[in-house]
Recover the amino acids of this structure.
C-alpha cells in the first residue's frame, strides 16, 4: 500500500503559507499522494484552488480530491477545474467524487438535494467522455477535445449499491470513506464485485482514508467532534478512530495493506506542520 | 457510579452482576415490572463460543449455568419421513426460568438491588450516572428517545408460537410437516432432563388458511400437537402463554444517548431461528461493563461499547434476516431431495458452508458428496466421491465434467484455452454480437465476422472442457468505448446508429436509439438465427442467448426500457413476445441436441422495473421454449439501478429462479472460491456456478 497525506484544507487556522509548505514537504517526504477534503459550510479552503497551489510547488506526489462533492458544482466548470489542475500538475490529478453527507451544503450551493446521484453520474460521464475523446477512443463534438485529461485518475466514493455501480461504470477506482480494515475489506469486495458485474477488465484501484493527530490530540479530537457534529452520535465514533500514536498508524497501514488497499491517505486533524513531520517519522 | 438497569432478563441481570462485581464498586439497581418467577418461553440456547466469554466474565455464574445445561452436538432434520443427522454443532440450552434464578441470586449476592413489580413508564436518566435499557424488544428506555437512537423496527419472518413438551429430543431438531394449508416447521431442543422447547412456525398466509388466527390457545396447541404427533412421539405440547406472535426485528443506529445505553433486545433483535438472542444480550453486558471499566469518561466508554458490538451484531442480524426469510419460503423447497434439503437448511444463513461442515461433520459431508455424485442413496460414509463442484452435469446431451463455468477474458483461442486449463468444465466466450450494429464496443466480436472461433473451441475441447458462447445485440447500450476506458461511454461521432425497444437513450450522453419496427425486428431475429448457425459451425457445445444487462432483448423485457404500445409492449406477455420470437428462431437454427441457455435479467433492481416475480415468469417462459438452463442476471437495465453488490450477490435470486421456475441455472455474482461452488450446488441453489478467477 502507498501512503498519502491530507492537506489541512478543512482544519481551522490553515493559511496559504501552511498549505504551500505542507505541499512542499509532502513532495519530499515518504508520501505518494496529497489529498483534500471538501466542505462548503465550514471554515475551509476550496479543494481545487488548494490543489492548484500544491501543483505549483510539487513535482512527484499525486494530487487527489478525497473526495470532492461533485453535484455542488456545475458539470462543465467542474470538468474545467479538474482539467486545469491536472494540466498544472502535469497529469498528477486523482479526481475523487462523491455525493457528500450534508444537505446544508446543497442548500448553500442552491443545488437540489434530490437527483444528486443522477447528477453525479452525468458529471462522471462528462469527465470520462472528455478523457476518452482526448485518448482517441471516441470522437467528441467540436470544442470538446481540449488537452488536460492525460494522466488523470477518476475515483468514486459512497456506500450504496448505486455508488459502486457508478464507480465501476465510469471510474478507475473506489474511494472508501474510512473505518477499520474490516470495513474497508467489505467495501473492497463490493467494489470488485461491481467492477466485474460491469465487465471491466482487471480490478479497481482502491483508496482508503483515516484521520490522525500526533501532537495535540485534544485539538485534533475537538476538530473532528466539531466537523462531524451534524452526524450526531457518529462524531464520537470518528473521534474514537482518530489515530493518535505511531503504533496505531502502523497497525492501520498494515491492516489496509492486507485487504488490498492501493493508496491510504492519512488526513490531518490539526493545522500544524509538525503533524506532517511526525507522520513522516512514523512512516520512515 | 450509580446505575439503574431497567429489565431483569438475562441482559439486565448479567449487566448488573458484572457492574456490581467490578472493582469500582458501582451502586446497581435493577427494576423489573414482572414477578421474579414470571418468565415466558421455555429454554434458551447458547453456542459453545459464547461459553468461553461467560467463563472469563464471571466464573461463578458460568459454573452454575453450565452445570444445569442440556448439551448436544447434532442437528436433526425430519423431512419427508426421513431423519438426517448432522453432527459437530456444539450447543447448550438451559431453562430460561432457571437461568434467571441463577442470575438473580448472583446479582443479590454481589449487592445489587433487585426490585420486581416495578413498572417504569418514563425512565428517568436524571439522578443516576448510567441508565441501562435492558427492557427488551419493547424497551421503554428506547421508546423515550427513538429519534436519538435512530430506531427502525418491523415484523420479520413467519408467525410462531413457543411451546414446551415433555418429549426430550436428543438434539436440536427441525421438523417439517406438509399440511393441506401449507408447510409448518418446528424448532425443538431439550433444555433439561424432562423438557424441550418446541417452537412451531409457518408463513402468515398458511396460518390464516389453517384458521389459526381464529383459534384460542388450547385449539391451536391441539392443532400443532396433531400435526407434529409423530415428531413428538405422542407427547403433548405444553403452554406458557404460547400465543401466536410475529417476530419484531429491531435495529438502532446508535445504542446510547446521553447517559442512557441499550443492551440486548432493546438495542437489537436477531430472529430466533439462529438462536442467538440470549447470547448476544449477555455478550453486550460483557462489552458494556468492560468498556465502562476501561474508560474513565462515560461517553467514551459507551462509544467504545457500541464500536465493539455493532459490527458483530450486524453480522448476526444479517444472518438472522436471511434465516427468517428461508423459513418463510421453505414451503417452496419441498421438491428437494432430503440430503440437499437438509444441507440447504444447514447453510441457509451463510454461516455454515460445505467446507466448514466438512470439518464439523466429515461423515455427513462424505454422505452428501456421494449422494450428490449419484453413488447411491444417503448413507453415512458408504462411498467415496469428489466434492459437489466436481460432479458432472448433464445438460441435454452435453456432459459437463464439473460445475464450474469461467468466462474467458476475450474471444481469442489463447484466452479460452487458458480458462479451460484452469479447470473450468464450461468455458464461456464473452458476448459476441449477431451483427456489427449489435456490438457493444468496436472490440465486441461479431459471429460470422473475423476471428477464429473454431480454433478457440478446439483449444477448449483439447483442454477437456465444453465451450459456450453468448450471442446478443447491444441495443441502446451499443456504440460505446472499450470497457478498459469505462462503461457506457459513447463513441460519439465514431459510433453507429442504435436500435432498441423504445427511443429512450440509456444514460448520460448516450445516443437516442430508434424504436424497432417490424422489418428491423425480423432482420434481428434472423441475425440471431444466423449467429446461432455460425456458433454451431464453429463447434460450440452450448449457446447462450443474451437477454440481460439492458441489451436489446432485455430492453424489451423491462417496462423501464420498453414503452411500446404495440403487441411487443405493455404487459409482461407483450414484452416477452419479441425475445421469445428471437429464441424460437435460435432454437430452430441451433442443433437440437445441443443445449441452449438464456442469460436472463430476473429483476431490474430499480423502482417500477422488472420484479423477481416477473423474472421467474420469464424464466418459465424461456424454459418452455426449449431452454435447458437460465444464466441468472440482474440490474443494468437502467444506469441508476439499485444493486446490492457483495459476495454471491446473485445466489438468492438464482435459488428462487431454480426453485420456482424449476429450470436449471447458471449463477455467478462474484463467486471466487470452490467452497462457494460446493455449497451452492449441493444445496440445490444452482446447477452450475460462474467462478471468478481473480486477476493477480
Amino acid at each position: 500500500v502507498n501512503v498519502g497525506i491530507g492537506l489541512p484544507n478543512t482544519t481551522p487556522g490553515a493559511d496559504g503559507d501552511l498549505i504551500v509548505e505542507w505541499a512542499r514537504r509532502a513532495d519530499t517526504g515518504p508520501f505518494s499522494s496529497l489529498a483534500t477534503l471538501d466542505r462548503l459550510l465550514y471554515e475551509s479552503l476550496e479543494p481545487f484552488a488548494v490543489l492548484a497551489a500544491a501543483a505549483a510547488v510539487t513535482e512527484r506526489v499525486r494530487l487527489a480530491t478525497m473526495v470532492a462533492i461533485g453535484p455542488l458544482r456545475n458539470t462543465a466548470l467542474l470538468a474545467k477545474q479538474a482539467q486545469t489542475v491536472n494540466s498544472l500538475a502535469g497529469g498528477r490529478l486523482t479526481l475523487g467524487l462523491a455525493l457528500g453527507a450534508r444537505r446544508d451544503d446543497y442548500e448553500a450551493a442552491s443545488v437540489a438535494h434530490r437527483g444528486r446521484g443522477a447528477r453525479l453520474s452525468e458529471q462522471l460521464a462528462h469527465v470520462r467522455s472528455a478523457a476518452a475523446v482526448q485518448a482517441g477512443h471516441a470522437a467528441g463534438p467540436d470544442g470538446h477535445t481540449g488537452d488536460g485529461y492525460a494522466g488523470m485518475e477518476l475515483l468514486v466514493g459512497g456506500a450504496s449499491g448505486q455508488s459502486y455501480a457508478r464507480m465501476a461504470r465510469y471510474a478507475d477506482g473506489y474511494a472508501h470513506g474510512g473505518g477499520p480494515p474490516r470495513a474497508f475489506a467489505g467495501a473492497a469486495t463490493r467494489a470488485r464485485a461491481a467492477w466485474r458485474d460491469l465487465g471491466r477488465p482487471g480490478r479497481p484501484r482502491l483508496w482508503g482514508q483515516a484521520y490522525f493527530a500526533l501532537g495535540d490530540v485534544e485539538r485534533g479530537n475537538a476538530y473532528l467532534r466539531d466537523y462531524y457534529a451534524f452526524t450526531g452520535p457518529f462524531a464520537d465514533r470518528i473521534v474514537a478512530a482518530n489515530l493518535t500514536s505511531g503504533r496505531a498508524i502502523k497497525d492501520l497501514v498494515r491492516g489496509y495493506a492486507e485487504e488490498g488497499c492501493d493508496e491510504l491517505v492519512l488526513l490531518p486533524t490539526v493545522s500544524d506542520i509538525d503533524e506532517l513531520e511526525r507522520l513522516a517519522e512514523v512512516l520512515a | 457510579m450509580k446505575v439503574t438497569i431497567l429489565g431483569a432478563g438475562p441482559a439486565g441481570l448479567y449487566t448488573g452482576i458484572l457492574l456490581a462485581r467490578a472493582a469500582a464498586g458501582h451502586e446497581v439497581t435493577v427494576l423489573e415490572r414482572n414477578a421474579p418467577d414470571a418468565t415466558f418461553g421455555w429454554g434458551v440456547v447458547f453456542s459453545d463460543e459464547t461459553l468461553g466469554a461467560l467463563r472469563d466474565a464471571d466464573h461463578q455464574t458460568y459454573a452454575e449455568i453450565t452445570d444445569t445445561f442440556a448439551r448436544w452436538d447434532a442437528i436433526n432434520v425430519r423431512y419427508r419421513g426421513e431423519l438426517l443427522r448432522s453432527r459437530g454443532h456444539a450447543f447448550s440450552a438451559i431453562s430460561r426460568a432457571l437461568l434467571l434464578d441463577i442470575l438473580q441470586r448472583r446479582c443479590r449476592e454481589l449487592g445489587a438491588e433487585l426490585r420486581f413489580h416495578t413498572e417504569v413508564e418514563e425512565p428517568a436518566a436524571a439522578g443516576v450516572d448510567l441508565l441501562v435499557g435492558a427492557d427488551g424488544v419493547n424497551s421503554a428506555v428506547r421508546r423515550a428517545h427513538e429519534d436519538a437512537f435512530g430506531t427502525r423496527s418491523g415484523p420479520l419472518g413467519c408467525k410462531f408460537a413457543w411451546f414446551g413438551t415433555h418429549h426430550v429430543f436428543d438434539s436440536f431438531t427441525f421438523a417439517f410437516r406438509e399440511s393441506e394449508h401449507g408447510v409448518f416447521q418446528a424448532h425443538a431442543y431439550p433444555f433439561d432432563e424432562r423438557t424441550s422447547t418446541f417452537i412451531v412456525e409457518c408463513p402468515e398466509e398458511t396460518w390464516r388458511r389453517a384458521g389459526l388466527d381464529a383459534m384460542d390457545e388450547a385449539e391451536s396447541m391441539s392443532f400443532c400437537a396433531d400435526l407434529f404427533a409423530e415428531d413428538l412421539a405422542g407427547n403433548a405440547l405444553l403452554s406458557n402463554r404460547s400465543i401466536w406472535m410475529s417476530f419484531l426485528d429491531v435495529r438502532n443506529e446508535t445504542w446510547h444517548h446521553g447517559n442512557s445505553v441499550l443492551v440486548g433486545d432493546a438495542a437489537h433483535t436477531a430472529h430466533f431461528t439462529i438462536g442467538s438472542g440470549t447470547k448476544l444480550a449477555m455478550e453486550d453486558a460483557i462489552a458494556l461493563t468492560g468498556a465502562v471499566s476501561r474508560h474513565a469518561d462515560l461517553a467514551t466508554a459507551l462509544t467504545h461499547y457500541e464500536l465493539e458490538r455493532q459490527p458483530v451484531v450486524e453480522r448476526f442480524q444479517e444472518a438472522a434476516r436471511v434465516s427468517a426469510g428461508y423459513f418463510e419460503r421453505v414451503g417452496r423447497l419441498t421438491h428437494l431431495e432430503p440430503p440437499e434439503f437438509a444441507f440447504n437448511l444447514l447453510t441457509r444463513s451463510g454461516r455454515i458452508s460445505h467446507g466448514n461442515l466438512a470439518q464439523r461433520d466429515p461423515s455427513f459431508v462424505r454422505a452428501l458428496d456421494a449422494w450428490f455424485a449419484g453413488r447411491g442413496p444417503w448413507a453415512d460414509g458408504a462411498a467415496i466421491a469428489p466434492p459437489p463442484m466436481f460432479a458432472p452435469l448433464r445438460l441435454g446431451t452435453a456432459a459437463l465434467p464439473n460445475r464450474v463455468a469461467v468466462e474467458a477474458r476475450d474471444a481469442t483461442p489463447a484466452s479460452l484455452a487458458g480458462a479451460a486449463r484452469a479447470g473450468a468444465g464450461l468455458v464461456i466466450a464473452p458476448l459476441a454480437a449477431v451483427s456489427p450494429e449489435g456490438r457493444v464496443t468496436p472490440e465486441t466480436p461479431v459471429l460470422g465476422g473475423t476471428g477464429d472461433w473454431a480454433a478457440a473451441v478446439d483449444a477448449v475441447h483439447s483442454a477437456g472442457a465444453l465451450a459456450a458462447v453468448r450471442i446478443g445485440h447491444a441495443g441502446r447500450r451499443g456504440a460505446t468505448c472499450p470497457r478498459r476506458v469505462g462503461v457506457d461511454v459513447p463513441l460519439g461521432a465514431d459510433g453507429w446508429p442504435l436500435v432498441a425497444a423504445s427511443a429512450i437513450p440509456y444514460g448520460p450522453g448516450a445516443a437516442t436509439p430508434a424504436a424497432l419496427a417490424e422489418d428491423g425486428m425480423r432482420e434481428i431475429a434472423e441475425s440471431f438465427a444466423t449467429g446461432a448457425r455460425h456458433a454451431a459451425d464453429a463447434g460450440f457445445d452450448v449457446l447462450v442467448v443474451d437477454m440481460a444487462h439492458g441489451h436489446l432483448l432485455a430492453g424489451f423485457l423491462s417496462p423501464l426500457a420498453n414503452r411500446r404500445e404495440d403487441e411487443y409492449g405493455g404487459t409482461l406477455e407483450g414484452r416477452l413476445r419479441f425475445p421469445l420470437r428471437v429464441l424460437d428462431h435460435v432454437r430452430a437454427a441451433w442443433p437440437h441436441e445441443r443445449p441452449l441457455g438464456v442469460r436472463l435479467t430476473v429483476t431490474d433492481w430499480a423502482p417500477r422495473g422488472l420484479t423477481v416475480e416477473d423474472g421467474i415468469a420469464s424464466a418459465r417462459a424461456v424454459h418452455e421454449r426449449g431452454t435447458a438452463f437460465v444464466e441468472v442476471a440482474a440490474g443494468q437495465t437502467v444506469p441508476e439501478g439499485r444493486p446490492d453488490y457483495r459476495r454471491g450477490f446473485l445466489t438468492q435470486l438464482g435459488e428462487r429462479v431454480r426453485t420456482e421456475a424449476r429450470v436449471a441455472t447458471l449463477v455467478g455474482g462474484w463467486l471466487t472460491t470452490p467452497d462457494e461452488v460446493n455449497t451452492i450446488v449441493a444445496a440445490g441453489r444452482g446447477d452450475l456456478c460462474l467462478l471468478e478467477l481473480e486477476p493477480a
Remarks:
- Chain A touches chain B through 51 residues (CB under 8 Å).
- Chain A has a mean pLDDT of 95.
- Residues 6 and 267 of chain A are 4 Å apart (CA to CA).
- The longest helix of chain A spans residues 116-134.
